[in-house]
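Consider the tokenized backbone below.
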């Protein structure tokens, strides 16, 4: 198996951070590039807002979220990766699962490492919606890392 490009979708949550040891280990073992992806919600597609909401506020909210994500991605690289030259940052707007799958295709990823949120309900195990869509539809191998608080 040859892994040269590894995609790590990261929503800046604790769950996403749980995938970090796997991402680092795989990147080191295969000398792979790490591509970290953050997907912003498309607030313009949101339904009615309570009261009057100026579209410029939506733009400001998305700009703030994008700046915060870029800053956090840079911090992740500096703190956890020795070779930031092999660390690419991507920010997209839209549906997280769709955007992850687009990046897999567009950037010719070899693997995805993603944290899965999920619950055990009535002895049935459930996977978070985004992770499940990626596992079912990705044209490459997907490593799922549990959120950590399953019981």
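A designed sequence for it:
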């Amino acid at each position: 198996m040859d892994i040269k490009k590894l995609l790590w979708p990261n929503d800046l949550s604790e769950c996403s951070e749980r995938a970090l040891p796997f991402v680092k280990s795989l990147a080191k073992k295969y000398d792979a590039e790490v591509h970290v992806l953050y997907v912003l919600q498309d607030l313009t597609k949101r339904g009615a807002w309570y009261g009057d909401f100026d579209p410029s506020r939506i733009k400001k909210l998305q700009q703030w979220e994008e700046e915060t994500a870029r800053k956090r991605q840079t911090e992740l690289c500096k703190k956890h990766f020795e070779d930031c030259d092999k660390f690419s940052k991507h920010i997209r707007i839209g549906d997280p699962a769709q955007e992850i799958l687009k990046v897999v295709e567009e950037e010719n990823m070899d693997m995805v490492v993603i944290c899965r949120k999920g619950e055990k309900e009535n002895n049935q195990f459930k996977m978070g919606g985004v992770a499940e869509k990626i596992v079912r539809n990705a044209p490459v191998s997907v490593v799922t890392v549990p959120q950590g608080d399953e019981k």
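Residues 5-84+106-146 form a domain with the Rossmann fold fold (CATH 3.40.50.620).
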